[in-house]
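Researcher: Checking consistency across runs. Here is Transmembrane 9 superfamily member again:
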Amino acid sequence: MARAGASAVIAVLILACALGARADGSDHKYKEGDHVPLYANKVGPFHNPSETYRYYDLPFCAPEHPKDKREALGEVLNGDRLVDAPYELNFKEDMNSKNLCKKTLTKEEVAKLRDAVAKDYYFQMYYDDLPLWGFLGKMDKDREQGDAKYLLFKHIHFDIMYNDNRIIEINVQTDPNVAVDITEDKEVPIEFSYSVTWKKTDIPFEKRMEKYSKSSSMPQHLEIHWFSIINSCVTVLLLTGFLATILMRVLKNDFIKYSHEDESLEDQEESGWKYIHGDVFRFPKQKSLFAAIIGSGTQLLALAIFIFLLALVGVFYPYNRGALFTALVVIYALTSGIAGYTATSFYLQLEGTNWVRNLIFTGCLFCGPLFLTFCFLNTVAIAYSATAALPFGTIIVIILIWALVTSPLLVLGGIAGKNSNTEFQAPCRTTKYPREIPQLPWYRSTIPQMAMAGFLPFSAIYIELYYIFASIWGHKIYTIYSILFIVFIILIIVTAFVTVALTYFQLAVEDHEWWWRSVLCGGSTGIFIFFYCIYYYHARSDMSGFMQTSFFFGYMTCVCYGFFLMLGTVGFRASLFFVRHIYRSIKCE
């Protein structure tokens, strides 16, 4: 039943993503002379991907009654606002030059367009679900005088390729020689025009999207990706060998000694963890927060795995508009039951009493900061009149998903966790009073241990991080999901191994407060990712302005926080398995 339910959920999600991408129901087959609609999407500064505006916010030629295209949830979340464009690109009909419109730009419109050209504004359109881009103009600088000349392109050429009755590829070209000077603040008469050329190609319709993924699959990029994986694998092998040495030498000797009644207690360094068997399973402080972290982290881990599964089966092909955002919202809502079940059952195992409060805490632990961040950033987007500002209807839809899907599943999961009646499995009895922790050197304190724990997993993924950032916060395309999935698995393994090793060293010096330490050490990779965000923003990108900076650091903080919860859960689960194993292997008095 569980497998059937999971399969049904995946099938529904794939269908939802596909419908979200092709809401118009088009079969993409045309006859000669058929009208194929061209939709204008947005304009914005090239280096600020979040700062985009509606196409007609700039004084372009517009049809008499432009209609907005109906969009899916993910498309709206992605900032897409498709609207009819005035260009007529009928199937297989060439056009040398056609006047679009004549108008006289006012001083205010000239100033607005000049500012757009200075900021490298680009436009994005969609033709038969194929994306196309172009720049509005260019800025020529006079090296001798140091003056800048602003030119606005007034002619666009569409180069379209077709195979039989299907459109395969479209490119747009702007001619710098056909431009108008908008340097001075004065009224400028302008005549916009366009031309169309159709060419036949042998590329099949099924492969028309491969053009957009070729850049990430080029040999030089693949070499870097494989180098990243080899680097990560070497890290894993070294850690595995290191841990195997510990387990096979140190622990094996301990087990042999502790299995005899006349065990020797002279070697304190090797046998230190045996002395604290009465304290090692003492429940941590702040049980409700601890259980909420484990519940939320488990949900985010399940979310990541489901997203990777959808990516591997080909749902997130390039420019499948909004599919990723739709999947994130839907899967997060459906996996909230996992958070409720895990948090409540573990909270009751820790002998917690107020499970309802813990369930509410779990539901707000990740959603709360994300909601507050969204409210702030949406207010900023509204102030800028950007397309990133969500319409009121979309906000209502998200609230309904949260109220009708996320919350009920969270409660159902909590009730299931309460009724599971699972007791905490502790191989050793806990003493009434805690044992005093000896004085330890500074490098064994929490922060240095977190620094060591986060560095190794981060070093295994940092090469891949650049390509992910360049895709999310730039205009590059990332399609090698198989490599990314391998790197993700390596990240999970390295995090688990490093946390287990640090937990062993902590127990070896008779420090029994390992519960919170394992979560903090496991999740510390999220802090390293945040520091990488700061480095990327200042050193590897050209982003600027209050809105773009707010969006970058606002949402990346939430992502890093999510990684902290997810990897912290992985670190704790691995440490708990390890601690149970070693104490189950000895005789506890």
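Researcher: Does this match what you'd expect to see?
Model: One thing to look at in this run: Residues 1-23, 261-270 have pLDDT under 50 and may be disordered.
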